[in-house]
Design a protein that fits this description.
About 65% of the residues lie in helices and about 10% in strands. It contains 5 helices and 3 strands; from the N terminus they run H-H-H-H-E-E-E-H. A hairpin with a 4-residue loop joins strand 2 and strand 3. Helix 1 packs antiparallel against helix 2 and helix 2 packs antiparallel against helix 5. It is elongated and about 70 Å long. Keywords: Membrane, Transmembrane, Transmembrane helix.
């Protein structure tokens, strides 16, 4: 955000594209995970189990992030002000605290209301979202690495 636009939120085009990508990727990955689990059920290989678990972790990661982006998709200018008012204690306390800018980011996903005095209050994005998405992303990366290693190890043994 530039200094001349302190109340600019997230880029609406990027929010729309991320929403659409997540809404398509999450069910697609979920279907891929189910197909993989069915195949693993027949073969029962360690590589297959790691692969299925990794895909499920990616489903959780993409799904949680998409859930957060959908919150932003519904956040127009008036909703941004309302979210700040709500997090700052409602309309009664709103006159005591002045929001001087919004602080936004995509990673981690956040929409903050920065007040005079230097404190930023998180608004609009559920508090559980970033920790859950982060934990599932770390899990997905670790399981993907285990699946790749198991697959390579399995190929070497069968060759």
């Amino acid at each position: 955000m530039s200094g001349d636009e302190p109340y600019a939120g997230h880029n609406p085009v990027l929010v729309l594209l991320l929403s659409l990508a997540g809404l398509l990727a999450t069910p697609g990955l979920a279907i891929y995970a189910i197909v993989t689990l069915v195949r693993v059920g027949r073969k029962r290989t360690r590589a297959g189990l790691f692969k299925a678990a990794a895909i499920l972790a990616w489903v959780a990661t993409v799904g949680m992030y998409t859930w957060g982006v959908l919150h932003l998709l519904l956040l127009d200018e008036s909703a941004q002000a309302a979210a700040c008012t709500k997090v700052l204690g409602g309309p009664d306390k709103r006159s005591e605290v002045v929001v001087d800018r919004y602080e936004t980011s995509f990673i981690p996903l956040r929409f903050g209301c920065h007040v005079e005095g230097g404190k930023t209050y998180e608004a609009a994005i559920p508090g559980y979202l970033n920790p859950v998405a982060g934990l599932s992303a770390v899990t997905a990366v670790a399981l993907t690495a285990c699946a790749a290693r198991s697959h390579t190890h399995h190929k070497e043994r069968t060759a």
